[in-house]
Amino acid sequence: MKHLPFATLGFVATFVGVTTFFSSTLFADNAEGEKSRLASLAKFTRVLATIEKHYVDDITIDEIVNKAISGLLTNLDAHSGYLDEKHFKDLKVQTEGEFGGLGITVGQRDGALTVIAPMEGTPADKAGVKAGDIIIKINLQSTLNMTIDEAVNLMRGKPKTKIELTLVREGQSKPLIVPIVRDIIKIESVYSRMIENENILYVRVVSFDKNIVADVDSALKKHKNVQGIVLDLRNNPGGLLNQAVGLVDLFVDEGVIVSQKGRVESENSEYKATKGGVGLKMPLVVLVNGGSASASEIVSGALQDYKRAVVIGEKTFGKGSVQAILPVVDNEAMRLTIARYYLPSGRTIQAEGVVPDIIVYPGDVPTKETEQGIKEKDLKKHLESELKKTDDANITTNEKGKDKAKIKDKEPLKEDKTIVSQENLFKDMQLKSAVDAIKILSIKK
């Protein structure tokens, strides 16, 4: 017992020695880190001074610093960027005002300016721009080494003004030149229709604006007794996070829908489902493709993780990072990636995308016609063509000097906006597959 105090003292002395060593090491590490930091800043300052003194053109230190900041942020990732006074003002116009545009969302993929998706019904969509197209020129200006902000600024402009995009498209041997006329972008973000001859509700979400959840909720309540739902998120470039969370919440009643994680703890958060969704019991299929990004990937990925929906189509774009607009000085800011989104299973969307449960490529549904049917159809077309020639010849011969007879074309049938016709269904292999999956899920249920 007499030796106990000495033993304790020895333990304390050893502990103090370890603590002292640890503190010294930590201090040394901090000192080394600070030394490295100062050396790096000194190197950066030398580079700025050298450019200011020796660069071939007269350039101010302010211009040099702005270019340095822009280059730094651009090289961090595809979505970070520097907003000088002009770009910051343009951003405010985009988010607060009315402007003329094309109606496409773009991103950087492998260093190329890539169309994430054209918005339905917009000038770009009507001109034939497709998801996955690579924009190599805007008017005559090359997009190589161009930032997303610079590209967006070039594409935006006064309504009714013309612009020309040069596109590289998979499967095309030559670049495509697509002329487009800018316009005010107004889109119907949600519309719902019944599939003709099927008790299945088709819900199309074009982009995630502030009314998505309310509009989808209204459509579900209006069609409570349907056999199932097809949620179409193809070419949906994303939008508001809270609307993506709210949409999943209509079909899931518990668990984390998506989490946001970054280096700063205050940026971390979880978004959870609540009870009471109106679409909890209905069989559900989600359609996606390479133009489905961001919020669309959160919705499809979360529903897939919870096995609440069958996801059909093609792999999504892979945009799962969070950007914040952070001030630099008055009227200047930076767009900085501060976190990434993670799905309920813990997987990330960023650069990975969501892989569908069933891969289905776009195109018509193949149909088998009898040989006689094909011959009869071709013969009929041929005879109609020949009859037209004789009619035209008679008009030229017998009505010479007079007005040619005018044949009034039969007015086209107006599209019924309450249904998806069987004809349109068979022109969309992905949608047809979704309808077939609903039927299988209903039998299983």
Short summary:
Helix content is 38%, strand content 22%. It is α/β, with parallel strands linked by helices and 445 residues long.
Topology:
Blueprint: H1 4-54, H2 61-76, E1 81-83, H3 85-96, E2 100-101, E3 104-109, E4 112-118, H4 123-127, E5 134-138, E6 141-142, H5 148-155, E7 162-168, E8 176-181, E9 183-184, E10 190-195, E11 200-205, H6 212-222, E12 228-232, H7 241-249, E13 256-261, E14 269-272, E15 284-288, H8 295-305, E16 310-313, E17 321-329, E18 332-342, E19 358-359, H9 371-398, E20 419-420, H10 422-425, H11 429-444
Parallel strand pairs: 10-20, 11-12, 12-15, 15-16, 16-19
Antiparallel strand pairs: 1-18, 2-9, 3-4, 5-6, 5-7, 7-8, 10-11, 13-14, 13-18, 17-18
List keywords for this structure.
single chain; about 450 residues; alpha/beta; Pdz3 Domain; 2-enoyl-CoA Hydratase, Chain A, domain 1; 11 helices; 20 strands; about 40% helix; about 20% strand; globular
Can you characterise this structure?
The protein starts with a helix and ends with a helix. 38% of the residues lie in helices and 22% in strands. The chain has a seven-stranded mixed beta sheet with strand order 19-16-15-12-11-10-20, with helices on both faces. Strands 1, 13, 14, 17 and 18 form a five-stranded antiparallel beta sheet that branches. The protein is built from eleven helices and 20 strands. The protein is of the alpha/beta class and 445 residues long. Among the domains are: 40-76, no CATH class; 84-184, Pdz3 Domain; 190-359, 2-enoyl-CoA Hydratase, Chain A, domain 1 (Alpha-Beta Complex).
